[in-house]
Structure formats: C-alpha cells, structure tokens
Amino acid sequence: MTTDITAQGGVQKEKSMLLQKAMISANYDALARAHDEGKKVSSTFVPGNLNELLMCFDMVRNLPEINALQSAMRKQTGAYIMEAERAGHSEDVCTYVKSDLGMMAKGSIGPSGQPLPVPDLLLLSYTGCFTFMKWFELVRDQYNCETAMLHVPYQADGKITDNMRQYVVMQLREHIIPSLERVSGIKFDIDRLREHLAESARAEDDLVWVLESAKHKPSPIDAYFGGVYYCGPIFTAFRGAPETTEYYREVRREVEQRIELGLGPVTPEGVLDEERVRVVVEGPPNWTHFRDFWKMFYDEGAVVVASSYTKVGGLYDYGFRHDPDNPLETLADYCLGCYTNHSLPARVNMLCDYMDKYSADGFLVNSIKSCNSFSAGQLLLLREVEQRTGKPAGFIETDLVDPRYFSSANVKNRLESYFQMIAQKKTRHGVAA
Question: How far apart are CA 82 and CA 406, in angstroms?
C-alpha cells in the first residue's frame, strides 16, 4: 500500500489538498460572478461565522481574513499593507485589516486574480476581537453597505450560561435573520438550516478524529502547519456543504493510511522520516513565509501535535457539534465557544491539557506583532504552561501577513536553540531513568 501523494511545483500534495484547492477556486469564481448572476454577497469573519445560516439565503460568502492570508501566500500583501499605511493606518494596526484595505485601494482584485464584488451585507459575529468591529466600520465607510452585528458575550468564567445563549438567540431571531431576509429577498427556512447543520456535524466528527490522530507516535499529521489546511473548509465558506463532508472523509482516509503504515506527517518535501520533537504551539502562523517557516520545524524533526490557532473556528475536540435539533441555540453555542472568546485561565487549561494528551515535549508561542487577540497575555500563558507541565517553553515573534516582520535568520536561530534545549532535556531524563 502506498500513500496517494502527487508533486505539484515541487510541493507534495495529497488528494484532499487538491480537493480543497478546487473548493477555494470555485468560491472565488462564484464571488466574481455573483452580481452578474443576481446573487447577493456577504462578508464575514472566521471566528463565530454563521455559514450554515448564510447558505439558507443563497448568499455567496466572502471572508476578508482568508483573502489576506491567501494573498500573503502569493507574496501580494506587502504592497497592500504599504498602500494602507500611506493612507494613514498605523504600523500597529492588524495586518489582515491593512492588507484588506490596501487590496480595496488597488482595485479589489482577490488572490485568485479575479475581482471581488462589493458586499451587500457585512455580518459580524463578535467573538473576542475588537479589531473586527473597527475593520468593518472602515469597510462600511468604503462601500456604504448594510451591516449586521451579532454581539457575543465573552466567556469570562469559562462556561456558557443559558442567559448568554438566549441573548444570542434573541439577536438571531430579531435582527440577523430579518436582515438576511431583507438583503437576499429569500424567506428563512429553518428546515434548510437543519440540513446544513447536520452536514456540519458529520464533517466535524471526522475533523476531530484527524486532529486527535496526533496522539499516535509518530504523529501522522502536523496539527499546526498541516492543521490549518485541515481546518480551512470547516472554518470558512464551506461548512455545512456536502462537498465539505466528503473532503473530511478523504482526509480521514489518508490519515488512517498513514497510521497503518507508521508514517509521519506529509510536509511540502514529502513524508517526515523521523519524529524527534513533539510540541504544542500557541498563536497563528506567519503566512508570507509559510513554507520556509514550516521547513524550520521539519528540518529539526519537530512535529506540532496540537495548536490553539486551529481552534479559532471552534473547539470541536471538546465536544461541540452543530445540532440540527436546536438550530439557533447551536449557532449561539458555536459563536460563544470559539478560542478567542475564552479567558486566559481557560486557554491555559486547554494548552496544559494538550501538553498531556498529546505527550508533547515542549510548548512554543509564536507571538504575532499586530494581533492583540492572541498576543495579549501570551507571556503569562507561557509561564503558566511551563510551570504547570514542567516542559520547556519557547517564544518567537513574527506577523500574520506583513513580510517586514519575518526575520528568517532570527526565527531559525531561536527555533534551533529551542529544539536543542528540548533534546538535551529529553536526553537527561533518559539517562536518569
């Protein structure tokens, strides 16, 4: 038996990656044609997005964060960010925002090379990131389009109360759904929503299985660099669609095959031969140098077995599934449960849990210069996780999509020193044992 991997442009590709690429391309095609075909366009964000609900109104979904990271991987965001800064935006503003505004200033040509349409509706589910609100205020000023905001209470005490849930449901009934009906011209059908939610739950089951496969030794996946690919469809414009369910079935088949063969994760240069270090990573990856960044890990035999960034679109591995029997309540619970809507103590507990469950050798923070949602409190997280687990912690700093803030030499030196420290500690423990 052999793994189903093909090489494209020097990068190793599995069948599931090709399926995802086709889905993304199809969505950009749909966005480019939307207004010519009489369809309405919504713009929304990844954490707490209401994709199943938007699908009920036949809206084509645009996600500015995804546009920014896709543009970054194509080396386009540097020019967009400079354009936004020339217009007066500070160097400290989130670079997703500046990339989006700069792209708009340069004609709103998306990462696929096709024009992005003016949105008919800006839909914001506030889940822990204040920047989202300011971002859509700026976009609304540019496009003068309707804006609907779903206010999501913060999980300060680490749990969802019935009062919080009903507050979100009330907004869905009285504000969000009427806005979607008005903009789209389509009457809300709750049975259609139930169908999409059932589809989401099936895909979520397979995603959780894939993420938890990293408990194996060697891990068949990288849960950070590979994990962002695995989470892509379910976090964005595809959750609730049948093709997404099939995508996750395929990913699971591929991972099952690697476990059977005792293989490590697939990297851009092929299957990792030897797993030497297992780490948990906190914080988003850098997108402008994504492949180079990943190479710094697999060159050292370092595999990320769990990460916090792959939970920004939902903590499915802690039991949440979209529930078609309680459609509006489950949408509320989803929005309330995203990672960035959790308190620092809750995040520490989760990261320590990952360190134990996934038999990690160390904990690494990638602090993002322009992302306060993640970077605020990360040194506290680092100290707490290191103290509670007794495992060595490391700290590096990059940025989301600004190429000026990725110093390859600096990051590489820090990572090499960190992985050497882990190796030395493991050796000492082995000798003591």
Answer: 16
Is residue 424 a contact partner of residue 98, using CB atoms and an 8 Å limit?
no
Kindly compute the dihedral angle of the four CA atoms of residues 396, 400, 405, 411, in this order, to the nearest 10 degrees. Answer: 30
Per the DSSP assignment, residues forming a β-bridge with 228 are: none
pLDDT confidence bin for 354, thresholds 50/70/90: very high
What was the pLDDT predicted at 1?
Answer: 32
**How high is the pLDDT of residue 7?**
47
Task: Tokens 């990856």: give the residue.
Answer: 285
Give tens-digit pLDDT for 356-413. 999 999 999 999 988 888 888 899 999 999 999 999 999 999 999 999 999 999 999 9
Contact 105, 86 (CB under 8 A): no
Residue whose structure tokens are 């803030």: 405
**In the block, which residue shows the tokens 């789209």?**
184
Share of the chain above pLDDT 70, in %: 96
Long-range contacts from 357-360, C-beta under 8 angstroms, 24+ separation: 357/215, 357/306, 358/214, 358/215, 358/219, 358/223, 358/278, 358/280, 358/305, 358/306, 359/215, 359/217, 359/278, 359/305, 360/278, 360/279, 360/280, 360/305, 360/306, 360/391
Separation of alpha carbons 235 and 233, rounded Å: 6
Domains of the chain: 5-186 (3.40.50.11890)
